[in-house]
Amino acid sequence: MLNCIRSLFRINNNKSKNESAKGDLLKMKNIVLFGPPGAGKGTQADVLKEKYQLVHISTGDVFRYNIKNETELGKLAKSYMDKGHLVPDEVTINMLNAEVDKNPKANGFIFDGFPRTAAQAEALANLMVEKNSQINAMVALEVDDEVLVTRLLERGKSSGRPDDANEEVIRERIAEYYRKTDILKDYYQAENKYFGVDGVGSIEDITDRLSTVIDKL
Ligand code: ADP
Fold first, then answer.
1. pLDDT of 22 higher than 80
2. In this structure, what are the phi and psi dihedrals at residue 117, rounded to the nearest 5 degrees?
3. What pLDDT does residue 156 have?
4. Measuring from atom 4 of ligand 1, which residue has the nearest CA?
5. Is pTM beyond 0.85 here?
6. Rounded CA separation 170/164 (Å)
7. Which protein residues touch ligand 1 with a CB less than 6 Å away?
8. Helix extents (H) in the chain
9. Which one of 11, 115, 145, 168 has the largest count of C-beta atoms within 10 Å of its C-beta?
């Protein structure tokens, strides 16, 4: 299983620690954009990546790209996503590492949909240390569950996403969020890196709220 997962990624293990630990990476701004499904992470990440010149990595988008292209990774991910469950950590972590490695010159990253479990948060912290950098903040969009369900059902009418088309799957994704992901607030709070923002309002207003946090980092 492990070898199979490794072979799904082109992982560069030859890099020496010194090579990747370049001083200028210390200047990177790395943000975890957080919130339950339907909170508006993708919408805001699209605006923020331009505003702050950051690389946006959405694990959901990478999985969907792989599903569309019918890769082995895509087939594996789909079997979990269609049920509203998380893709296993090892698969997701390897994929995330590979995506970060594709952008050696980035000013920083917006992580959208990652981390979603404690193991992923640990893996991200380790990856940042390897890059001689760190996560500066988790900025969370806070939205009530029933608003989320309404938004996702609405998005499902046009997104073509099978996981948005079915209320049961939507509720399972929200339940999975509370089972495995919500605890990450405490993880970042313990490092004084958690910033919650009201995720209800106009897109522009919410961008302003997020920017107020990011500008201070
Ligand atoms: P949403 O936040 O609206 O649920 P995403 O596009 O972020 O949408 O994720 C869609 C699905 O992709 C998730 O329900 C899950 O199955 C899978 N996925 C995305 N990110 C992760 C992750 N970090 N760990 C495990 N599975 C993930």
1. no
2. -140, 165
3. 97
4. 37
5. yes
6. 6
7. 37-38, 59-60, 63, 80-81, 85-87, 92, 113-114, 116, 120, 163, 173
8. 2-7, 17-20, 41-52, 59-68, 72-81, 89-101, 118-130, 145-159, 167-176, 184-189, 203-215
9. 115
